[in-house]
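comment on this one:
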Amino acid sequence: MFGSEFRSVGEAGLVAEIQACTRAEAQAAARRLAAVGELAARATEPEDDERQKWVVDLWACAAAEVGAAMGISHHRAKQQLAIGLSLRERLPKVAALFAAGAISAKLISTITWRTHLVLNAELAARIDAAIAEHACSWGALSQQRLDLAIDAIVETHDPDARRRFHEAARNCDVQIGKPDDATGTASVYGRLSAPDAALLEQRITELSTSVCDGDPRTCGQRRAAALGAIAAGAEQLACHCGAAQCPRAGAPDPRATAIVIHAITDTTPTKPTATPTPETNPNSTTTNTADTAEVHDETTTATHTQDTTDDHGGSETTTAKPQSRKPNRSTDTPAPPADDEVAPAAEPTPPSEEPTSEPPTPPSDPGAGSVYEPQPPAGAPAAIILGRGGGVIPPALLAELIANGATVRSVYRPDDIADPGYRPPQPCQRFIRMRDLTCRFPGCDRPAHYCDIDHTIPHPAGRTHPSNTKCLCRLHHLLKTFCGWHDQQLPDGTITWTAPSGHTYTTHPLSRMLFPHWNTTTADLPPPAHPPPPPSAQRHLKMPRRRRTRAADTTTRINTERTLNKREVNHYDPYRR
């Protein structure tokens, strides 16, 4: 049992153990960040290295190693690199306290962030000494008071480096969802400019009052529905009065029509029937064919990696385990490129950190409208929403989406015959994305519909088949192609990654956890008849480039913020309200 070794220890001994472990925990974190800082320093030292202008530069390569080693996302890994480098180069006295276990990792994170704008080495040394003098007494402070304590020291020695908000507009943001949201709902909160807020309020009011007086929803419920309708590009809000004479009666709900429900089935397809609705089939799609459902939060237009358009746009939903073989194959409108797994690099100007392109909409399916008839499981499933606004949809809400016009599609396991082309056919793409659900690089959870589809063994030596393809976000696709990462794939989608450092990491498809009864194992492909050709000596020319190095970008941003700070200090009026 957890903690059983302390049953016979007195309270004084327990408190002593807590103190010792707290110090040891801080010391271990300090040692880890020292190693991270060394890796960060090596990534920044060769300033004239050509790779510093690659989109996936040496810093991104270091972040990939750190993220995989720590089991964290690429963004958090970059934060760890920044903290380690700050302790190493700007805050040696604070780092010494940390190494002794006197202050916590959380305190270190705040200190390095609040002092990030200090550029002058002499001023940085003064701030480091002043913080080190007081930091041991800051552990009990609230976050707000801790920020104030650090800012007071920074203000004393380098006023231009204090973190400020120059305008309220810099605080503008919109966030969707938080951990305590009720099932089937998501909170929306943020700050807009006054003109944008007025326009949004006007549009919400127009839509919420466009229904007839018989609509049973409250004003607040209609306003919430109106916001969803705006997101779906609707001109009017569907009325729920149920009256036959209502001009809005029977009109499709634009929010539902922007959603695609993917039903993962258990049996081979029967002859096509009409797309089910709760009226014609009360246990339709996700309630009848699946253990769960999954909704992908996609936009109605756009592409992320290629121009993949569909006959409708919107979110996607999937439900449990296909054992079926293929219906029709269709021509493919691709997911992500790769010339020998290099083509993604041919994108002219991808982002420095994350792919800039928008996600592809679901590909057109010749079999859309046909459904399978599996044995219904016991109980009605909920729906799992994946994407940036993940959550759970209860069965009743899922049935309502279907009744209001959501598109229902089936996901089936492709046959064991590899496709001769480079790009997987649309049904195969859909299976791969539903199987993986996210980027398959260690620590990355970018939704699969934002990702490229990558050949594990490069085409044409490697076959175009689910057993040899997987989802990778653009960043990690480029990383694999150019930066020395290697992968091996099993027929069930399990990937074993080998880092340039020689460490190995194994990732499994997310569907394995969400849909445990879905057998995603496909054919065990024979080894390629001929090994893939060695990479071209000119391959690096296909790597997208930065306009300037990451270090130059960082310096420019810091100088810009310091200039704004100085302007604010010079124009400060204590009597201005």
Summary: The longest helix spans residues 11-44. The two ends are 60 Å apart (CA to CA).
